[in-house]
Amino acid sequence: MLTDAEIxxxxxxxxxxxxxxxxxDASSADSRKAVELDQQSVGRLSRxxxxxxxxxxxxxxxxxxxxxxxxxxxxxxxxxxDYGFCVRCGEDxxxxxxxxxxxxxxxxxxxKGAG
Length: 115
Ligand SMILES: [Zn+2]
Hints:
Layout: H1 4-41, H2 44-80, H3 95-100, H4 108-114
This protein binds zinc ion.
C-alpha cells in the first residue's frame, strides 16, 4: 500500500509529466505549421521527405496522446481514491512499480499477461 504522502509525490510527478507533454504539444503545433510553409517552396523530393517527417511526427504525437491519456487516467484514479490498485484485477500495484511508472494502470502480473 502507498501512503498518502507517497501518492501526493507521485501525483506531482504525474502532473509535471502531463504539463511537459502539453508543452511539447504546443511547440509541435508550431513546427507542423513550419512544415506546411516549407512544402510550398521546395521540390518534389524534399516534399516527400517533408511528408515522411510529418508521418513520423504524427506517430510520435499519437504516442504522446496515449501517454497523456494514461497520465490523466492515473490522476483521476488519485482523485477517485482508486490509485495504486490494478484496473484489471483490483490488487495492489507494487509501490516500486509505481515509482518507476506512476501512471502504471496494471499490477506486474496483469502487465505480464497483457504482454
Ligand atoms: Zn492486476
